[in-house]
Amino acid sequence: MSRTITFAVAGATGRLGRHIVDVLTERDYETVPMSRACGVDIVTGEGLAEALAGVDIIIDAASWPASDQQAAAEFFHASTRTLHEAGRKAGVSHIVVASVIGADRFTAGFLAAKQVHEQLSLAGPLPARILRAAQFHEYVAEHLDRQKDGVAHIPAWPSRPVSARTVAEALADLALSPDTPARPTPGTPIPEIAGPRKEILAEAAALLGARRGIRVIGVDIPDANDPDAETYAGGGLLPSPHARLAGPSFEEWVESQG
Question: What is the model's pTM?
Answer without folding.
Answer: 0.95
